Amino acid sequence: MGCTPVHSAAQGCSMSVMGDLTMSRVVPSPLPQSQSTMLSILWLLLSFVVSLLGFYVSISCPHGKQCQRALLSNNDIFLHCNSPGAQWYYFLQDGTNWSSPIRSVSNIETMPEGSILLRSPLPSQTGMYTCIDKKGIQVVQYEIDFQDVGTLHITHRGLGQAPLQNETLSLGQKELIFTQWEPWQDCNRCGEPGERKRLGYCYIQEPLEKPTPCQLYLGSAILWSNRMRPEMQIEACHVQCKTSDVKNVFFDNFELSEESGSAWLTCPFGSIYRPVIWESNSTPLTWQGQLSGQDVSTVLDPSSGGRRLQVFQPAIYRCFVQQEFMARFNPKPNLDTLEVLLREEARQQQEARETWKEKDSILQKLKLMLLVGTVLGLSGVLLKLFCSSQSKRSNQVLLVK
Ligand SMILES: *[C@@H]1O[C@H](CO)[C@@H](O)[C@H](O)[C@H]1NC(C)=O
Ligand SMILES: *[C@@H]1O[C@H](CO)[C@@H](O)[C@H](O)[C@H]1NC(C)=O
């Protein structure tokens, strides 16, 4: 049994977001420039916490089942298998044989609890991924079609751009090649005009058969067709705001590279599978602006669904994920502005003295957070040890009886 994205709920194949870290507001904004060093430290620490917790879009499949999915290349994905010490094997679509344990593949990491993390999967990694438990029994099997994000066909309804048309192939029996759309993601802003996107994957369907992701259908065969590509469609949206005061706030200093005159900013917690928005001077950087060629001062990276932004101006940028404020990117001051900043500094030192208390409490909160995290982790380990010694003890009791 396979599960397609459209029928995923009915057939039990599901996608979720892991490690969705929600913490109380760490830093109030806006903040004076003088706090930027402090904030860089905060950023580093928080990035560390995030990397410890992990943050991945996760695909799961019911125990003992086989699940079929189309996904995008180049975007990290987590394949779930709940079996500690499990071994993974894969069989690539390009005809490569069964590999010995997946451990040898550089962009695939096996987690202790049994799942695997694929970092920037390649289209050539399309194939079958099988999780085998310690006893050699198959736990789950995923058939994943990593569609080439480099060929993503992007259209905006507001600009009257149409998605790809259905086409008929003649591989033998008038197969239909079409885009199977995922549901629309949430609107990226609330209370004001926003944009939302949805992803569509290439599927091939034989008459009266179930559709199959294109490359999984074709196997090792190669089809030279301009229709063989994933899609992303964007449209305008306007939704009410829900009140929520839980926010993740990150800060970063960025510097334009001398060679390209630009910098790449990455929105933490953002993903091609979730709504992301970038703002500069409270003006949203829209897909409409980019796709119509109006906005040339920034570039939303299509292959990350807009999670990454290329900027050419040393301005302040903010990003939001699922309408929650995620990060603020301050430009690093350059030499020209240094003098101005030095003069500013005197004034700001005074201010800094006043806000020291505030910063201090930020650090205290952060320390507390790290401490709580460590304590929770340790108590988890202790609890596990305790439980296993308990169960050993009860086994012993049974033996004595
Ligand atoms: C790989 O697969 C081919 C065809 O399926 C088979 O003939 C060959 O023996 C296999 N090689 C290995 C090393 O298993
Ligand atoms: C394309 O084919 C799919 C699958 O059969 C179908 O659901 C969809 O309505 C078709 N779209 C158009 C524009 O004909």
Automatic annotation (TrEMBL):
Keywords: Glycoprotein, Membrane, Signal, Transmembrane, Transmembrane helix. It is a single-pass type I membrane protein. One of its GO terms (cellular component) is membrane. It is found in: Membrane. InterPro entries: FAM187A/B. The chain crosses the membrane at residues 38-59. This is Protein FAM187B-like. The gene is LOC114510577.
